[in-house]
TrEMBL record:
InterPro entries: QdtA_cupin_dom, RmlC-like_jellyroll, RmlC_Cupin_sf. Pfam families: FdtA (PF05523). Keywords: Isomerase. CDD domains: cupin_QdtA-like. Coiled coil: none annotated. Residues 4-131 form the Sugar 3,4-ketoisomerase QdtA cupin domain. This is dTDP-6-deoxy-3,4-keto-hexulose isomerase. The keyword Secreted does not apply. One of its GO terms (molecular function) is isomerase activity.
Length: 139
């Protein structure tokens, strides 16, 4: 089955000192976090991503600045704007994704369910359709 991406809102813990937002396995991240990376200083007009995964689930949050994410799970295409440190996009392996419209100050933090493995990437769109378009029922 095609799994649907989702948006999670974190609540900011705030006091007179400022804010603190928590991402934690099970309490709001629906997978065991094995890897963290962040994308920053992305040049204007750059579009990156262009892949789906076999196994990896990911959580994307723009902790500073903003960017957009184009999603395609073979049965639906959508565009998500990540413009708040409290807005978390949960990507399923079947989500082909492209990130673009990065602000100069954007720091895109990514939490991943798996260690890095280049073989987990599907970088060819035709292959992506072959792998995932058989799954017809969207949840
Ligand atoms: C994704 C989106 C949101 C590593 O060596 N280890 C790692 O953990 C990662 C993530 C990347 N790399 C290497 C692989 C490439 O040589 O770093 C280089 C840049 O990665 P890539 O071209 O895959 O970057 P994006 O922005 O296209 O995609 C990244 C993640 O790779 C990917 O999992 O879903 O961000």
């Amino acid at each position: 089955n095609v799994k649907k991406s989702s948006i999670i809102e974190t609540s900011s813990l705030g006091d007179e000192r400022g804010f603190l937002a928590v991402l934690e396995t099970q309490s709001n991240i629906p997978f065991e976090i094995k890897r963290v990376f962040y994308i920053y200083s992305t040049k204007e007009d750059i579009r990156r991503g262009f892949h789906a995964h076999h196994k990896t689930r990911q959580a994307l949050v723009s902790v500073a600045g903003k960017c957009k994410v184009h999603l395609d799970n073979t049965s639906r295409k959508e565009e998500v704007t990540l413009d708040s440190p409290n807005k978390i996009l949960i990507l399923e392996p079947n989500d082909w994704h492209e990130m673009y419209d990065f602000s100069n100050d954007c720091v895109l933090l990514v939490l991943a369910s798996e260690l890095y493995d280049s073989k987990d990437y599907i970088r060819d769109y035709e292959e992506f359709l072959k792998v995932y378009s058989k799954s017809t029922s969207e949840v």
